[in-house]
Amino acid sequence: MTLVDAAGAAPAPGSPVRRGPGRPRDAGHDARILSAAIALMERGEEVTVGRVVELSGVSRAAIYRRWPSMTDLLAAALDQGREAPPLPYGDDLLGALLEGYTSPLPAMGAGYSEERLRLRLRLALSDRRLAQAYWRSHVSRRRSGITALLQAGVARGELREDLDLEATIDLMNGVFYYQYVVRGVSFDDPSMLPRCREALRIVWRGIVREPDAHPG
Amino acid sequence: MTLVDAAGAAPAPGSPVRRGPGRPRDAGHDARILSAAIALMERGEEVTVGRVVELSGVSRAAIYRRWPSMTDLLAAALDQGREAPPLPYGDDLLGALLEGYTSPLPAMGAGYSEERLRLRLRLALSDRRLAQAYWRSHVSRRRSGITALLQAGVARGELREDLDLEATIDLMNGVFYYQYVVRGVSFDDPSMLPRCREALRIVWRGIVREPDAHPG
């Protein structure tokens, strides 16, 4: 498959998302807390700080020092293992988009799976606050790479100068989510990639600057 | 808000989806069976034929005569109350698309709600067979209106003759789903409609036939 809000991301911000001031922390704690949260979510259990303490062996204070709310912790846990393939920056912007969006599943990160994506989307649909926390702390950051790529295209005069970057990225990402969520197809469905590539070409024609555009 | 796979649909197929041969049926039974299924889903209970019999008072045989599997019944129940606003067919194809996709929530059907949409998407993400059944029996049918509208545009020479209709509709629908599923915004979020309208205009530029296109 491909991914969508992964495509063209900047280097992933450090995990966990928030770092407060204070003494240096045990990196092993982060991993234990996140694993405990993921395990609870995968079992369909509610993720409470008490259960995370129990499963991870990390103290309540240390958990809250890292993630100020359970929603923030859930968002970080759902993003675990997710990586963003670097987009090639070059002259061939359309090629970079097609490649970035249709790179194979392992480019999402070896520790990430389609099951994890489905879990994240289900939980986001049940809990709008979680969806918004995930959006702020993960998706919107991952979009920085593709945003920069498009901005460079605008600056070079290759893309329309009035381009709405948010709408453009929502369109390109949205067509992939539609495959999973509405069509119910899997990452490796053979019909999916050609359809999505064609969709990206439609977007391309909609964002590229017409060669004969006259000023004014 | 708007909807997406609702936009531009043909008259909704009769409910329930499948009609077998045989004696005329009690229409009240359909409604009771569907309500029972919805009630079970909303409570998070598993929808078994036994529980549907119990709640609806309709016999097992009568249920299976209408829906050959629980997956088919679930798909029909999730579509209950969903209506498809007719798209105006006229000369202004872009106007029709913008209007059809951004018509207010009541156009989805008075008996339909954002909560129902979220429930449908959550269940579809948990059960790919349900997603595919819903796609076949409901979404793909609802897309027939927008498909006809685009085909007419191609026939008139307004849209590109090599237009990939499936990719086009996936793009336009996908950008709306992205808002709910990934951004976590609601139907009435003030930023959503302008962004989606702009996305539809990008698609439009990508599908319209260039006026100076030379043949060959």
TrEMBL record, chains A, B:
Gene3D superfamilies: Homeodomain-like (1.10.10.60), Tetracycline Repressor, domain 2 (1.10.357.10). Residues 27-85 form the HTH tetR-type domain. Residues 48-67 bind DNA. PROSITE patterns: HTH_TETR_2. Residues 1-19 have a biased composition (Low complexity). PANTHER family: HTH-TYPE TRANSCRIPTIONAL REGULATOR RUTR, TETR-FAMILY TRANSCRIPTIONAL REGULATOR. This is TetR/AcrR family transcriptional regulator. It comes from Leucobacter allii.
